[in-house]
Amino acid sequence: MIDEGAITRRLILDEGEVLHVYWDSLGFATLGVGRLVDERKGGGITQDESRYMLRNDIHRKISECDARFEWWPLVDSVRQQVLICMAFQLGVEGVTGFHDMCAALARGDYVRASIEMLNSTWARQTPARAQRMAKIMHSGVWE
Asked: What is the DSSP string of the chain?
């Protein structure tokens, strides 16, 4: 029987472990412990792996929002989801730049928060996405 712990340790020692995409000695995109992700050589990840990373990213954003915004627990889950979507695109620090939106959320004024979302560079750069998120923020109905 293969000792997964032993082979894991050996492969990490031999391959190294890089927690971002890097280019291997042949110039192909690689990730983690020698994982070829460059599609030119047939690399990539599975949908399960992608969803695993996405779940981790969502949980990380939730934790970051919870730590950063004192009003976070007062916002209903649908509107929290809007903020997670924004944080996914802009980062939590990017969301903090929406001062008037954050102030409106702290007051529970979702109409004003949705207006402030659209009064932004973000809305001009990604108008369809911003419109969708602002509509959900306004209505409280996930679509």
From this structure: ---HHHHHHHHHHHH--EEEEEE-TTS-EEEETTEE--GGGT----HHHHHHHHHHHHHHHHHHHHHH-TTGGGS-HHHHHHHHHHHHHH-HHHHHT-HHHHHHHHHT-HHHHHHHHHSSHHHHHSHHHHHHHHHHHHH----
7-63 pLDDT per residue, tens: 999 999 989 999 999 999 899 999 999 999 999 999 999 999 999 999 999 999 999
Q: Where are the domains of the chain?
A: 4-41, 47-139
pTM: 0.85
CATH code of the region 47-139: 1.10.530.40
